[in-house]
Specification:
Radius of gyration: 19 Å
Low-confidence stretches: 100-110, 119-128
Oligomer: single chain
Strand content: 15-25%
Structural class: alpha/beta
Number of domains: 2
Largest sheet: 5 strands, mixed
């Protein structure tokens, strides 16, 4: 079936054939052909951009166009033939369609997405004792999902932004105590959410608000590295840079590294 959905595109002039994107694509949709990265088949590409963060030249982009549906069964056969591991989970073709599928349904209309500043008894948004449990929340605002926060939310002005991939707080035991106090949290999944919308939203946030800093937190898995790539594209769109630190978290809950962007 042909549908409108996201698809990886490769700028051949920027591609140097390094091959770093090949293992980053869990579905095996990319290959080096004649010294350049190529899309093997449309049905192998979920268009979610896990490979973006592994391209050192910025040759990989996500575009929206008409393409054949993603085919999980074809991906399994393809990976088996290559001797590669099949991912535990893959998105359904329906979830990737931008016309009539769940990916086309905009978020909103939920009472839980109303803006709130959380400061009961001045206990919110203050550091807790290291290793403390059961104390007051350090979260100073609501909502936290990137898709739900408007670019002109008052808590964004002159904020220290904490851009967090959804899985980080689950893996990192002291995320709340160590990183949340004093920061505005924006969370999202760079693999399953709409990356183009993320780029546009973050670019508008950067343009409208005099941000003091950004801390971007990702898991070590390849698909999560797209959060840094999304932020880099947002900087380009906004034509503005903010002091940024990239924090990489391991699956066993340790900090693997902190690097400036």
């Amino acid at each position: 079936m042909i549908s409108k959905r996201k698809m990886i595109t490769i700028d051949e002039e920027l591609c140097n054939g390094c091959g770093q994107c090949i293992p980053a694509c869990e579905e095996g949709a990319l290959a080096i052909v004649d010294g350049k990265a190529r899309l093997v088949k449309e049905v192998f590409c979920d268009g979610l951009g896990a490979c973006l963060g592994d391209c050192p030249t910025g040759a990989l982009k996500v575009e929206v166009r008409e393409a054949e549906d993603f085919d999980p069964e074809a991906v399994k056969e393809h990976l088996f033939a290559l001797g590669r591991t099949v991912p535990d989970h893959m998105p359904s073709p329906e979830s990737l369609r931008l016309e009539g599928g769940s990916a086309a349904r905009p978020a909103g209309g939920c009472p839980g997405s109303a803006l709130h500043t959380l400061s009961p008894c001045e206990q919110a948004n203050v550091p807790q004792q290291p290793g403390g449990r059961g104390g007051a929340s350090s979260l100073g605002h609501w909502p936290v999902q990137l898709r739900l926060v408007p670019p002109d939310a008052p808590f964004l002005e002159q904020a220290d932004l904490l851009l967090t991939a959804d899985c980080v707080p689950v893996a990192l035991p002291d995320y709340h105590d160590r990183f949340v106090p004093g920061r505005v949290v924006l969370m999202g999944c760079p693999k399953f959410d709409n990356q183009l919308e993320y780029i546009e939203k973050i670019a508008e946030i950067i343009t409208r608000n005099d941000l003091k800093s950004i801390t971007v937190m990702e898991m070590e898995v390849p698909c999560c590295a797209s959060m840094t790539a999304i932020l880099a594209e947002a900087f380009k769109c906004a034509d503005r840079k903010v002091d940024t630190v990239r924090v990489t978290v391991s699956r066993n809950g340790t900090i693997l590294g902190k690097t400036p962007m």
